[in-house]
Write a structure and sequence with these properties.
Blueprint lengths: L5 E2 L1 E7 L5 H11 L7 E7 L4 E7 L2 H4 L2 H5 L5 E7 L14 E5 L2 E11 L2 H10 L9 H10 L6 H9 L4 E8 L4 E5 L8 E5 L2 E5 L2 H6 L3 E5 L4 E6 L2 E6 L8 E2 L1 H6 L5 E2 L2 E2 H15 L6 E4 L5 H11 L7 E3 L12 H6 L5 E3 L1 H4 L3 E6 L8 H10 L4 E6 L12 E2 L7 H4 L2 H8 L3 E4 L2 H8 L6 E2 L1 H4 L22
Parallel strand pairs: 15-25, 18-21, 21-22, 22-24
Antiparallel strand pairs: 1-23, 2-5, 2-11, 3-4, 3-5, 6-7, 7-8, 8-9, 9-13, 10-11, 10-12, 13-14, 16-17, 19-20
Helix pairs in contact: 4-5, 5-6, 9-10, 9-16
Length: about 475
Amino acid sequence: MTDKPREACGVFGIYGPGEDAARITFFGLFALQHRGQESAGIVTGDGAQLHDHAEMGLVAQVFTEEDLAELPGHIAIGHTRYSTTGSSRVCNAQPIVVHGPHGPVALGHNGNLVNFETLRADLVREGHDFVSTTDSEIIARLIAFAEDEDWITRIRSVMARLTGAFSVVLATPEELFAFRDPLGVRPLCLGRLHDAWLISSESCALDTVGAEYVREIEPGEIVRITATGIQSDSLRIPHRQAMCIFEYIYFARPDSTINQRLVHQTRQEMGRQLAREQPADADIVIAVPDSATPAGIGYAEESGIPYAEGLVKNRYIGRTFIQPDQRLRERGVSLKYNPLPEVLADKRIVVVDDSIVRGTTTRPIVRLLRRAGAREVHVRIHAPPMMHPCYLGVDLARRSELIAARMTVPEICAHIEADTLGYLSLPGLIQAIRLDGGQLCNGCFTGRYPLKAINARADADKFVLERT
């Protein structure tokens, strides 16, 4: 049904005396559902113990009023998952709870570790019995069993051992923590709701629960929230960042703010830059909804070609575990998109999309538009060709599966049956984002990753821990 990169997950946390922490977390996760649809969970702390509930499914499927009533406490963390290490099954649902010598801890993780096999082997030698096949449980166990005298010191010492991407919320029965890898690969921000402090993968979840966006959690920063207030602690790290460039292109909701700029505006600028670099002689501009819509609008504004809605998306087709039968499977993208023939008939069309990964859905979309009467179809992508896998929290594809790693742009154009095909250049993309290129991870385009250790992961996949 989809040929898009898939994100790892969304995390949310609250420390709110007097607040219904579980309910607020539920709605925070609801706003982060786009970051993961395989499982969801919430853990609460009431000052004495932790209470947890996690299952497979969407947030609205996992929780009932009765479930929330059984999650008391003023502290809560929540998680929505898409698997990048470990398969999609209930034992891998998060937050993960680990009972250590200092008491129980619960952890929700967005990202991917590169050195997880070495760390897990060390823990197995020490006698740990794992209940999941995720790298997230490795982080939780390292922290829960660290011998340092306080939680901040334990987290700091463990962070120094981790290589990769990790934006994490962690709860004990009495305290809430958040920390982010030194490169800042995955987003994480801090918010305020009356006297409560909140942590979220994206600012859109803070808006949903009526909280105020305060700031981003800095790369390498540890935030501790207790009854006495908020404390910040940072690792001593080189001044180097590597935010995932695909947060701007596709993952983040357009109403989220990253680096003090609304994502919607950034994507519109990608579309404008795309129109400058890859013009087309056409009658209308349409976008593949929903993630490419801002870029489509930007392309239309810059080119002077009218923008129109040519595809209507069924926003719920991907939110069911019921598999279509063979006849419905053969309809492919028609299950997800309906064309508007009255808009498309006899038109030369520019169709803007955010990416082509394997090429398995772009050709059906082009065919769908032609069947609806389009005279010409000019495909424009507001990102460069994706030629390399991701090892930092995106389930992308193996290099052999990426169409741009196997074909030239003219060959891809012929394969998807478009009249023309144009990609946004990497310099143009960076210019649209308005960050120094050295502050972004663009390994999926260039093969140059921010961590040298990634080169050793070339043959790994997300099921590696299930074979050990």
